[in-house]
Design a protein that fits this description.
Length: about 450
C-alpha cells in the first residue's frame, strides 16, 4: 500500500537492503503486515510463537501461518513456549510471560540472522487505546504520545492505518486470517476499551481514533523540544554526590527548582527519570516544600526532604551490627573490611592522616568493640573539643544528609563509649599523646 510505503520512508523505518523479521500471529493485523511488506519488496522472514494457551486454537493459528508463508514463499520461524510454567516460575502474569518470551526470542533470532529490525503490527486503534489507558491510570507527557513507530529495533509500519483500513485491504486482496477468541471477551483491560469504551466514544465522535492518534503524534513531535528545555533546567537543579558509604545520591535543589515556570512538572520529570513511580512522584511534587525529614519510599528508592533539597538514593539497608572481640580482620556489609591491630609505639610512629585509618591510645580502650549505626542520644567528645556533643548535631554540622545520617557508623568500646564516629572523628578521650605507650590501629574501608 502506498500509504504504508510513504509512512516507512517518512519515518525512516526500514531499508530495502536489510533483513526484517515480522511477528506473525495469524490475526488480521500481522497478516496484513506480512502481505504489505512482502508486496512492497522488503526482504522479510516471519516468526510465529505458539504459546499453547488456547488448546486447538493455538495449533490452528500455527497451521494457518505455515500455509500462508508457504503460499507467499516467505521463510517462517516457529517456536513453542510453555507459557504457564514460565509465568509460575517467574511469578508474573500470563500476558507478561508471553511478552517476555516473545521479545526475548525475537531478539535472539534477530542476532542469529543478523536482521536489521523486528516488525510488529500495531496500528492506529492500538495507539489510541494505549493513550486512553495511560490517561485513565495517570501518566506524563510521554505516556500521551502512545505507541512509537520505532523504538530501538522494534518497528511498527502499520501505525498509519486504522483497523478498518487493514480489514479493507485484506478484503481487497481476498486474504483471510484467523481470529483469537480471547479478543472477543472483555475480561482483559485492553479489550474493555476496545469492545466497550471506544464504541461509545465513536457515537460522540466517529473520528475519535484519528483525533487521539493525531494528538499523540503532535505531542511526540513536541517532546524533543520539551526535552531540550528540561535538560537545561535539570542541569541547574540536579547534582550528584557520593555518600560516605560510597553510594551515589541524586540531589535536587528545591530553591533552584522554584525559579522555573513550572516547578511541579519539572520535578515530576526529574523524579520519573530517576525511577520513581508516577504515583509517588506526584505526591512528592505536590509536597516539595514540606518540612525537612519527610521521606517517601517505593520501588527500591528512598526520597528524603533534607533542608532545601530532595535526595534520591536506593533504599538503604540498615548496616548490621558487628562485635569485635579481639584484634584481627573482620568483613562487614557490602565488602567493607574492618582491621584492628595493636602495637607498641615506636620512634618512627606517625599518626594517620587518612579518614579510613585512625590511631588510638590502646590502653584507654577495652574489648569487645562494637561497630553499629548511631542512635538518638548518642554523644561523644570530638577530637579537639572539651565538652561532649550529640552525634546528631555533629553530623548536622558536617552537613551530612538525612540519608547519610541514617547510615552513619560508630565504634564503641566494652563500656558502650563511642571511640570513633567512623571515617569522621575520634573521641578526644582516646587520642594518642606523648604519654601513649601502645597504639590501637583501626582501619575501615
Amino acid at each position: 500500500m502506498k500509504k504504508v510505503q510513504e509512512f516507512i520512508q517518512r519515518r525512516y523505518l526500514l531499508s530495502k537492503d536489510g533483513l526484517h523479521l515480522v511477528a506473525l500471529s495469524g490475526g488480521a493485523d500481522s497478516v496484513a503486515l506480512v502481505r504489505i511488506l512482502h508486496s512492497l519488496g522488503y526482504k522479510i522472514e516471519a516468526i510465529h510463537c505458539n504459546f499453547h494457551l488456547r488448546g486447538e486454537e493455538s495449533n490452528r493459528d500455527e497451521e494457518f501461518c505455515k500455509a500462508l508463508c508457504q503460499q507467499q514463499n516467505i521463510p517462517l520461524h516457529l517456536v513453542h513456549f510453555d507459557t504457564k510454567t514460565y509465568s509460575e516460575l517467574h511469578r508474573i502474569s500470563i500476558e507478561m510471560a508471553a511478552r517476555d518470551l516473545r521479545y526475548n526470542h525475537f531478539r535472539q533470532l534477530k542476532e542469529t540472522l543478523n536482521a536489521e529490525s523486528i516488525c510488529v503490527a500495531h496500528h492506529k486503534d492500538d495507539c489510541a487505546e494505549t493513550v486512553l489507558m495511560n490517561l485513565v491510570r495517570g501518566t506524563g507527557l510521554k505516556g500521551l504520545t502512545g505507541i512509537r513507530a520505532k523504538n530501538g529495533d522494534i518497528v511498527r509500519p502499520l501505525l498509519c492505518l486504522s483497523r478498518q483500513e487493514i480489514e479493507a485491504y485484506l478484503s481487497s486482496i481476498s486474504q483471510d486470517y484467523v481470529t483469537d477468541s480471547t479478543n472477543l471477551s472483555d475480561e482483559a483491560t485492553r479489550n474493555k476499551y476496545r469492545l466497550n469504551i471506544f464504541p461509545l466514544l465513536k457515537e460522540i465522535n466517529p473520528s475519535v481514533i484519528e483525533s487521539i492518534t493525531s494528538t499523540a503524534q503532535h505531542l511526540e513531535e513536541m517532546l524533543p523540544i520539551v526535552e531540550v528545555a528540561l535538560e537545561d533546567c535539570r542541569k541547574k537543579c540536579v547534582s550528584r554526590f557520593h555518600a560516605i558509604s560510597g553510594e551515589e545520591i541524586v540531589k535536587i535543589d528545591v530553591e533552584e527548582l522554584e525559579k522555573h515556570p513550572s516547578p511541579q512538572f519539572l520535578l515530576f520529570n526529574i523524579l520519573s527519570e530517576n525511577g520513581i513511580p508516577n504515583i509517588i512522584a506526584s505526591q512528592i511534587a505536590e509536597n516539595r516544600t514540606t518540612q525537612s525529614g519527610k521521606f517517601w519510599e517505593g520501588d527500591g528508592k528512598l526520597i528524603v526532604k533534607d533542608r532545601n533539597a530532595l535526595l534520591i538514593s536506593s533504599t538503604p539497608k540498615t548496616p548490621t551490627q558487628l562485635v569485635i572481640p579481639e584484634e584481627g580482620i573482620y568483613v562487614h556489609d557490602q565488602g567493607k573490611r574492618l582491621s584492628v591491630k595493636r602495637f607498641t609505639k615506636h620512634e618512627d610512629f606517625k599518626i594517620s592522616k587518612s579518614t579510613e585509618t585512625v590511631h588510638l591510645d590502646a590502653d584507654s580502650i577495652s574489648f569487645p568493640l562494637c561497630l553499629r549505626t548511631t542512635k538518638p542520644g548518642d554523644r561523644f567528645i570530638p577530637l579537639g573539643m572539651k565538652g561532649s556533643k550529640l552525634i546528631s548535631d555533629f553530623l548536622t554540622d558536617r552537613k551530612l544528609s538525612v540519608i547519610e545520617k541514617r547510615q552513619q557508623l560508630c565504634l564503641t568500646d566494652s563500656n558502650g563509649r563511642i571511640i570513633w564516629v567512623v571515617n569522621l572523628r575520634i573521641n578526644e578521650k582516646n587520642k594518642t599523646t606523648e604519654k601513649t605507650k601502645n597504639i590501637l590501629e583501626i582501619e575501615y574501608k
